[in-house]
Amino acid sequence: MQQHAILHLTAADARLGTIIGTVGDYTIKCGGEPFRSLVEAIIYQQLAGSAADAISARFMKLYRGRFPAPARLLSTPDEVLRTAGLSGRKIEYMKDLAARVSESRLDLAGLAAMNDEQIVKQLSEVKGIGRWTAEMFLIFCLGRPDVLPVGDYGLRRAMQKTYRLRDLPAPERMKKIARPWRPYRSVATWYMWKSLEKFKAIG
Description:
Blueprint: H1 2-12, H2 14-23, H3 34-44, H4 49-62, H5 70-75, H6 78-82, H7 88-102, H8 116-123, H9 131-140, H10 153-162, H11 171-178, H12 185-202
Helix pairs in contact: 1-2, 2-12, 3-7, 3-9, 8-9, 10-12
């Protein structure tokens, strides 16, 4: 899929093709345990990478390096979780997710059989998981190839720079720009994110 996606995107969009040539191989790693992926997505919400990395490391230390099962997370007192740097709201979100999984109200194993929109709908019922978090799950955990996270600031900023737009693009403009990328919009999005690093290095 990777080579075919790169050939398709390079032919479909010259500017994106230039970015692909500069960035090189597509190195996104997909997979992982769904519960862990979602808990980590909650931890990383609205935080800079370094701050989130530190909190995630302290969270893992609470469990001696072994990621907790839903029942174990539920039984952990909130005040203990706060020592890792987690806010009360994020603890609430994580425990709502853990409770839904423990009580079989959310079947994470069954998500892979659903289409993208069905998965977004299912996950959005969990407190603190909105469309953006669900889309990151689709891209990074399930490896879905055609996700376009129009609410992602990094993608909006990269599109603004790449296509020399006056303002950050609105969702409809983003969908129009990304139309030639189908059915590999996830791959194109990754390259757009990487292009920000290139622009930063240049400027």
